[in-house]
Amino acid sequence: MLSTIKSLGPARFCLYLLALAITPLAFIADSNAETNWLTTVSYIAPALAVLLFFVLLLDALMSKVFAVDALQAGTANPHRQHMYLSLTAALLVALAWTPFFRALL
C-alpha cells in the first residue's frame, strides 16, 4: 500500500485527495443557499467538481498513454493502476454530484 502511494507522486496524490474531499460536499450542497458557509459549498464546490472530473479523466488518458509506452519499452508499468484509480475517482465524483446537477436542471 505504501509503495502504491509513493508511486503516485505528490500531484496525483493531491488530486485523489481532493476527489475524496469534494465527494461528501455533494450531499450538503444546496442550490438555494443565499448566505452563510453553505454558499461556498453550493457555488464553489460544484464548479470544482466539474473541473476535477475532467482533470481525472485527463489523468486516466495520460496514464494509458504512458502505460503503452512502458509496455513497448518493457519496463515496470504502474500506469495501468493509476489509470484505474483515476477512473474510479472520476466515477465517484460523478455519482456523488449527479443528484445536485439534476436538481439544477
Task: Explain this structure.
This protein is mainly α. The chain has one domain (2-104). The protein contains four helices and no strands. It has helices spanning 2-8, 10-22, 38-73, 79-104. α3 packs antiparallel against α4 (79-104). The longest helix is centred in the middle third of the chain and has 36 residues, at 38-73. It is elongated and about 55 Å long.
Please supply descriptive tags for the structure shown above.
105 residues; 4 helices; mainly alpha
Summarize the structure.
This protein is mainly alpha-helical. 78% of the residues lie in helices and 0% in strands.
Radius of gyration: 16 Å
Strand content: under 5%
Structural category: mainly alpha
First CA to last CA: what distance?
41 Å
Describe the sheet with the most strands: none
Explain the layout of strands and helices.
Blueprint: H1 2-8, H2 10-22, H3 38-73, H4 79-104
Helix pairs in contact: 2-3, 2-4, 3-4
